[in-house]
Fold these 3 entries.
Entry 1:
Amino acid sequence: MPSALSRGVANVAERAQLPPSLAISTVIFALRPGHEGCPTLWMPLVRRVREPFRGQWALPGGPLTAAESLEDAARRNLAETTGLAPAYIEQLYAFGGLRRAHRDEVGAQRVVSIVYWALVRADETALAGQTGLAGEQENVAWHPADPAHGGPGTLAFDHREIVDYALWRLRSKIEYAQVAYHLLGEMFTLAQLREVHEAVLGRSLDPANFRRQLKGTPHLEATDHYLEGGRHRPPRLYRYTGPRSL
């Protein structure tokens, strides 16, 4: 009869031969006031209630079921954990490093994560944690995305690496893609559009140069509306009329 030790060794070997488990995670960015009052990129995180990494913050996500597409799984996991339903969501990357989910457990089944990313408007951020599954609400909170702005330096699993990659992608696309408009409402001022670029890039931009660079920008349309309520001449409102892809 095999000893308990030999059975344990056999179980470890069997787990190591299992095909990788597939999971879905999502990085969501939104603009919220930072510690100094300036708009800053924030993201919702979920506190883990079980091992591994119990008590640590992680990206919202979960397993992929056999009866749903990758995007459907991402949207379902978001609804269950955060209550958020981004209008646009895009696949970011696949992360499949060896033992990435159980770094201290020898022979653990490998986990491959298909990661999505999404951008939501500031007025949608209040929904995070309000309409998720019962018991999840107190474990969902917004955090600055960048540690330089007070965000968490470490996250569960390899999620800090994932967030850093998503930030790099966002910063590399802000100059030529239409990502900024996903963080704004239907109408916005040029100053608000500049604030989005500054928050993503992490640096100040000269207002006059920024306005000149916007000249001739396709799909940026001036409206007949103005932003009221300020002490100075109300600025004109603009709208984006182009495709909504990231």
Entry 2:
Amino acid sequence: MAEGSMDMAELESSFKKFAIHGDTKATGQEMTGKNFVKLCKDCRVIDGKGVTSTDVDIIFTKVKSKSARVITYEQFKQALKELASKRFKGKPEEEALQEVYKLIAGKEPANIGVTKPAKAGAVDRLTDTAKYTGSHKERFNEEGKGRGKVGREDFVDSSGYVGAYKGAGTYDEKVKPDQ
């Protein structure tokens, strides 16, 4: 009998994990219809033959309270009882129920289809400074590190010389002091 109670603890744990899945405000005490369908899909209660997502929706509506949009753990167990007879046709009710519990116990919501971060290839290509040309090339030093503000803004040269003049800074040498 101890094994059965452990299964129930795992079943309740799975119920709570699926109940809070995708909902930041959920407490884990009640489950929405969407999450109930996800639980049935992820745990393979829905097999596409005996049990479809439509069956799951109908059973969810049947066990929930009239005006409620969620089911409690007790209503969840009632729904599983209804699904068990559909999923495992020909098996005794109790045995079918245990099979459904085994499918669900200890499971967590699968994150299949969740958006993954972009691959580094595109980022690497965009940040490869060797491919930068023209004025953008000035933003980086020889190692490819950004030069910050120096690379983005034009600073005014107030030395008195025309920009890019090769003889800049030679005025004092050319003018001889009077003696």
Entry 3:
Amino acid sequence: MTISVFLLDDHEIVRRGIAQLLETQDDIEVVGEAGTAAQALARIPTLRPDVAILDARLPDGDGVAVCREVRSSVEPPPACLMLTSYSDEEALFGAIMAGAAGYLLKQVTGVDLIGAVRTLAAGGSLLDPQATAQVLQRLRKGDEPVDPRYASLSEQERRILELVADGLTNRQIGAQLYLAEKTVKNYVSSLLGKLGFARRTEAAVYATERRHANRRSGPS
């Protein structure tokens, strides 16, 4: 049986490389690609792939949000494999909560990526058991208070919120995240609206207080 795969990555050369790698295998077929979250959300429901390989960081959102949406709206839902350049505990937490079946760094070898696609297509999981256990423990203990305002933020908005708290300007944030300054401004406006703040200084104070609260509730 052929495994159908959808690729989401904002770098065309990365998509091409992964597609060429996967299509060297007789049992894997790349049925679609996208460079933005919006494109992926429009195409995945129609293509209904067995596996969706999703980049965690996107110019118009994040792969975790795409995972959450397609897992809840597409039938049958694809097995989602998050592929990211960064090891990030919060991103892993978000991926698990969104229903992702795998989480890999882009430094993964080609052989391991092919194996991951086959594992997920067969109903397996590639989430680290220890990391998953830590997430479940956080949920059971309620170490991190659930704030519906913060929960409504996308991964990219949370990342930008942290940089706002660090005192970075929109231009500096854009340089760090490889985003246009106008795009950052739009993200800041969006997160301010979701948090119910009028000024970025209020958001910075909010993010700083969250940091302190998380440190106090973490392991000693």
